[in-house]
């Protein structure tokens, strides 16, 4: 090869290398991510995509907690409540399509704070540890939870509609629920593992995982979570949650009016009517009963 040809070839090679580096500046990383930037973009996407889901989750849990407090007891463990939903052992299971095949895995509740409050980027290790809290079972959890939200909202709407024309009877104010009613309210919740059992489960899970895994990178975790959000079932669940937002806002307003004594005409004018004592029913009916006790 002549000297001139060598020079042309060398210049061409340098240009090719520079062009490759320009297109793929982070080619030494899996997925060619600019990790801090990709992580920040994912933080924004999680807050945007899951906003309605998280608002509905908070709303339904608040109604359950208020109902439990109306029974004179403390709120049950949130993770146990969601385990009952996933495994279809709660009282609204019969109206949820996903309960045709109850989940029998170790699916666990992940609070919305994980999605809404991802910390700022500090380093790759911190990003990996944070993103690992978002589990691969999110698509199935959203299906089951959003169905539960819809069923709960419908039950509350039915109860409020029935409350417009209550049956005359004895005054329920000050009447405490029976022990059977309180026990029925707790139905479907499972007992907690002991600290020793939890530690054993954790160690066993780590041992099983370590048998067949590869090291994680921030890039791989960012790609994994983005792929979860791209899942069609996640998009469908998010769409359903968006559609329920107006119903939730209306119920929030109506429940506040109910507690303040100005939802129904019979609350606003004249002496309060009297009603039958609580004769049992599901948790939502019990919740509405407990609210009427406070009138």
Can you put this structure into words, describing what you see?
The protein has 295 residues and is mainly α. It is built from 13 helices and no strands. The protein has helices spanning 3-23, 35-49, 51-70, 78-86, 112-116, 124-131, 138-163, 179-185, 195-210, 218-230, 232-260, 265-268, 283-293. Helix 2 runs parallel beside helix 10. The longest helix has 29 residues, at 232-260. The N and C termini lie far apart (98 Å).
Shape: elongated
Rounded to an integer, what's the Rg over CA atoms?
27 Å
State the helical fraction. 55-70%
Strand content: under 5%
Which structural class best describes the helix and strand composition? mainly alpha
Q: Which stretches are low in confidence, meaning pLDDT under 50 for 5 or more residues running?
A: 20-32, 168-192
The number of strands is 0
Largest sheet: none
């Amino acid at each position: 090869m002549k000297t001139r040809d060598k020079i042309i070839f060398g210049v061409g090679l340098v240009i090719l290398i520079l062009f490759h580096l320009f297109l793929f500046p982070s080619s030494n990383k899996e997925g060619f991510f600019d990790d801090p930037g990709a992580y920040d973009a994912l933080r924004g996407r999680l807050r945007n995509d899951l906003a309605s889901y998280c608002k509905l989750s908070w709303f339904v849990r608040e109604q359950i907690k208020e109902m439990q407090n109306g029974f004179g007891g403390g709120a049950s463990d949130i993770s146990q409540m969601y385990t009952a939903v996933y495994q279809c052992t709660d009282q609204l299971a019969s109206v949820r399509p996903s309960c045709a095949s109850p989940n029998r895995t170790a699916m666990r509740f992940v609070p919305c704070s994980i999605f809404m409050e991802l910390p700022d980027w500090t380093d790759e290790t911190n990003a990996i540890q944070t993103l690992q809290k978002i589990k691969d079972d999110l698509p199935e959890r959203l299906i089951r939870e959003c169905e539960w939200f819809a069923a709960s909202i419908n039950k509350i709407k039915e109860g409020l509609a029935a409350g417009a024309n209550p049956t005359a009877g004895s005054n329920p104010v000050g009447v405490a629920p029976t022990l059977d009613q309180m026990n029925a309210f707790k139905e479907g919740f499972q007992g907690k593992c002991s600290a020793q059992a939890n530690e054993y489960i954790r160690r066993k899970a780590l041992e099983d995982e370590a048998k067949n895994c590869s090291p994680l990178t921030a890039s791989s975790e960012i790609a994994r979570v983005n792929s979860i959000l791209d899942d069609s079932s996640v998009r469908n669940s998010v769409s359903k949650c968006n559609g329920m937002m107006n119903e939730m806002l209306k119920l929030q307003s109506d429940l506040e009016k109910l507690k303040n004594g100005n939802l129904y005409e019979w609350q606003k004018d004249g002496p309060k009517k009297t009603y039958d004592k609580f004769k049992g029913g599901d948790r939502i009916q019990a919740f509405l009963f407990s609210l009427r006790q406070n009138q």
